[in-house]
Amino acid sequence: xxELSKSEILQSKPIGEGLNTFRDSYNTTWTDIPRLSDxxxxxxxxxxxxxxxxxxxILALQNLPAAHLLPSxxxxxxxxxxxxxxxxxxxxNDFNIRSVISLLNKVIDKAPDADIWGAVCDLxxxxxxxxxxxxxxxxxxxxxxxxxxxxxxxxxxxxxxALKDELDSSLYIDIPNFFDTFFGELMNLxxxxxxxxxxxxxxxxxxxxxxxxxxxxx
Length: 218
Prior knowledge:
Layout: H1 6-12, H2 20-29, H3 39-44, H4 47-62, H5 79-91, H6 101-108, H7 113-126, H8 153-156, H9 159-167, H10 178-183, H11 189-200, E1 208-209, E2 215-216
Helix pairs in contact: 4-5, 5-7, 6-7
């Protein structure tokens, strides 16, 4: 069976009354404010209320038959998949919620299906970051990382900084229950670690010194 074109999908799977429940809810809740397309209307709806509107709209759009057939503008399956990712972005608060007002206006004003779906595609495309290009595509990069460091005390002091740069955004701190999850089943680990740490503080030139000016030896 040949794949349907976008126009054929819109014709065979019209929105129809599929967004009427959302429109009725909006018209019932916001009867006393100006249009969203007006600057004054923007001022009357706070970001929290607008976020709830957008969430309701995304859920309504996801359930429309056309969303299951229209191709993703990002090349990732169908448009419904993009809406699912977009939903996660909206609820994460890491998003300019007012960028959705143009789509909301089209839905509320009962714009043609092509205009509504076009606004949806524009929105999910803008909210999807482009793949990061590989650095130095035509040459071997010169990098400074932990593999570049010699195993001598002269360079060991630079190791922490190089390791941090290498890991970059993969570093996480204050993860709940991290120790119990990864090391909880190791017998006597805490007592062994305490004994090793104590050993590091012994000798005339210990690996670790406590107090002011102390710390791990280079």
